[in-house]
Amino acid sequence: MENIEIKLIPKEQIEIALPLVEELNPNIEKQILKIRLLDMATQHYKCVGMFHFNKLVGISGLWFLTRHYCGKVIEPDHVIITEQYRNKGLGKILFKWIYNYGQSIGFEATELNTYIHNVKSHAFYENEGYKKLGFHYLKIF
Questions:
Q1: Residue 54, pLDDT above cutoff 90
Q2: Regarding beta strands 71-81 and 109-110, do their DSSP bridges make them parallel or antiparallel, or are they unpaired?
Q3: DSSP state of 3
Q4: What pLDDT is stored for residue 9 in this prediction?
Q5: How far apart are CA 57 and CA 4, in angstroms?
């Protein structure tokens, strides 16, 4: 697809990602998602946007951390491409940008989580070379 631009979304403009975050999290109140996204922007987090003619059509959050088992790692999070742009190869383009960006700033790997019910994403990530290492558990207080 032509006329695709991928770039980091400035912290001051992070709210433009909310419609896509809401699409991925339809059962969470919009105001809660906004509060959480703004809070995330104050942590070791950035958001990359994929734009088509200046329209935001995809996002991935990026967490930056160091792990004992793999070193400096970028964790793509809440990856989504809006429905009308899916199945056009944009996911591969977005992840290639993430890999190149990570390497350019001295990171060694990427790791991620995906929802169990999101079977299409499992195939995509496995095709990208990701390996299943374990389970991700959550306990809400």
A1: yes
A2: parallel
A3: S
A4: 98
A5: 9
Rounded to whole angstroms, how far apart are CA atoms 25 and 16?
15
Q: What is the mean pLDDT of residues 5-23?
A: 97
**Domains in the chain, ordered, with CATH?**
4-113 (3.40.630.30)
Q: Tell me the three state secondary structure of residue 67.
A: strand
How confident is the model over 105-132, as a mean pLDDT? 94
Q: Which element (helix H / strand E) includes 73?
A: strand 71-81
CB 108 within 8 A of CB 70: yes
Strand order in the sheet with 45-52: 4-9, 45-52, 55-67, 71-81, 109-110
Q: How far apart are CA 47 and CA 83, in angstroms?
A: 19
pLDDT greater than 90 at residue 44 = yes
